[in-house]
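Good morning C.,

I know you're traveling, so I'll keep this short. The sequence:
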Amino acid sequence: MRAIRLQSGHAWKAEPGCHILLIDSGAVRFDYPTDWIVRSTPKYVFVIDRYPPEDRCLLAVSWRRVPIRALAMSTAALLDRLAPFETRPADHRGETIRLFRPPLEAAWTETRFIEPLYGDEVCTRMCVARADCTQAVFLLDYRPGTESVVDSFWKILLDTLVVGEYLEDPRTGRKYAKRG
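The tokens, ready to paste straight into the viewer:
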């Protein structure tokens, strides 16, 4: 991952108090609070609110191109298939919430489970988002009692989320390549 210097007169606009995270030239884009920390690997991007051990929540983002036949399955059905219920037996699962902002389609849910190593309750929000043939998965883990921080961040993420809008030049934010 690298930070880039924007050209003067660029078209980017972030929510107040936020930066824009652009992954893989537009595969995924969303705003996050300016004081949060971003780290990446070739397959994942992580966003945390504080450095460990003071962190309260961690977002992991993965993305990929999917074949056109994969679009036949709704994001809600895909969420059910991908949710880590076998490895993290949920004590509670919330309703599936769907979001349509064409061409974006997304579905998310929240689960609560007991973390086996320490016996602490952990909350997880999982979201599957897709536009055209690009799909992203978001996994947000947090501890109970931090809902105000998480709810605010989650709202910003969902309100500003764009998937599959690839850019020819991310420094300007203007020239769009073909969607994907």
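Safe travels,
E.
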